[in-house]
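Q: My labmate handed me this sequence with no annotations at all. I'd like to see what the chain might look like in three dimensions before we decide whether it's worth expressing. Could you predict it?
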Amino acid sequence: MSMNVDPLARVLRTLDQITAAEGEVGTGVRADFDTSADGSAAPASPVSEADGGAPAPDGSEPGAVRTVELEEAATTPVTTGPGQARREAILDAASSLFAERGYHGASLRDISRRAGISHPGMLHHFASKDTLLGAVIDRLEDHAQGLLNSVESIQGSPATLIAALSGPWDPTQHEMALLATLSAETVNPDHPGRYRVARLRLVHEHVLEKALIGLSEQGQLVPGAQPAFVARSLFSLLLSLTVREHSVRELQQDRSADPSRDVHDFVRLCVVS
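A: Here is what I predict for the chain of 273 residues:
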């Protein structure tokens, strides 16, 4: 792997090593986005992820930490076949129910019924709900990795940023609903996905910040706008609009509010066309 790797790899590794006893996710983490003392990006670091309770593929004990290279994880080939199709159906059902009810509100039997598979059949693929949550978060990480890989095109112009905000960051889409629900749940320090979901939020903020830095370098941010602050504010707005879209909107007779338009209006306050 190239030594000139985005500092994101380091923050992922740092977040994975934080324990619940330490309690402070953000403190000391943002520093890992900085470059090294000589101004260059730090060497690549492996991404560590806690296994969800099932034995790891390499045969290590449940709960052990396994390491994978970020680029390798993003390019691992996906096998096909009836077993893989059932696995994907279970993940679809779990993702849907976790988005609707949260991790604690969706039981394994609920998920098996949604997937149209027997409960024992589901346990053949996922031995515990923690393991299933880990696989669901894997999908969200793949989604975030795709955004990271596309950051150069996103930062091309205000129009390309707005187009991305209408696509992969669309508050009406499933990925955002799932991330919003899990983000809200993980204020509980005992949530099994706490640090991986916190990591995901930092990844999304990082991608938006890089896009905004690119616009700033082209003179397309309003004077005084700080890319890091705008990125945090923008992603917070996206999560809030996602919650609103799946709650408040259903209670209103006037459903003319458009979350995409709200996001576009916010961006236009920050960029120079």
